[in-house]
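Annotated sample (chain length 272).
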Amino acid sequence: MKIVSYNINGIRAANRLGLIDWIAKSDYDIFCFQEIRANEDITRSIFSDSEQISLLDGNVNENFGVLEKYFKFYNCGSIPGYAGTMVLTKIKPDKVEYGLKDFWFDQEGRVITVYFGGLAIVNAYIPNGNSRLEFKMQFLDALTKYLEILKNKYSVICVGDFNIANDEIDLTNPKECKNKSVFLPIEREAFKKILALGYVDTFRYLYPDKREYSWRSYRSRQTNLPSTNYNSWKYRIDYAILYNRHALKLLDCEMPDLIYSDHLPVICSIEN
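Output written by the structure step:
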């Protein structure tokens, strides 16, 4: 099973860049998207096979019908153009839950959990803490409680944009970021508290010394810019964390360099 976690930084922008074509060509089992930034009607129209039109010439997309193989679940929230999550899955879930049960009122559409037998996959979009650090910490506390309960009944994979670089190896400028949300001690401790429940950071487990990053600014990719330090600011803030790696054999975790967002996808391969 291959599970994709991807902060797409707006479904409309990602679609214009060719996201649907990539979904069709990659043909993975489960896609967990964060930061949809559109209401459910708009999101459904973009992922509707009947409305997939080529952006280049107005003709029917060559991948017409490819999305029919996926069950689609949306949690777009009630704030227009903000946050939101969705899941595409080839495998029909036994059940789907939205939010964090009684631990959090999910007005912003930040969590979807899909269940397949003894496996629970949690798609989470953790808030940015630049202007709402207290809000972010409250969310992380609720997520921790939720994941603690889940692991008592299920093998669990929690994927998403955590907006936290866990250790110095996970960002390019740790000294400059020590007082910046994404690398604050309180944020890192919250992430470590989740791992302490028995969860494994799949990428770091497989590649303990590898320096790869899941976020870089759009400006860093503009090669015609003067030589500034844009390229030096990169973070690994997107994760696939796993509970019960003995029941779920971890095969790989990769972050291919794609163009559809300022984030890169995290693709976790498991054998269950």
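Annotation: The radius of gyration is 18 Å.
Annotation: The first strand starts at residue 2 and ends at 7.
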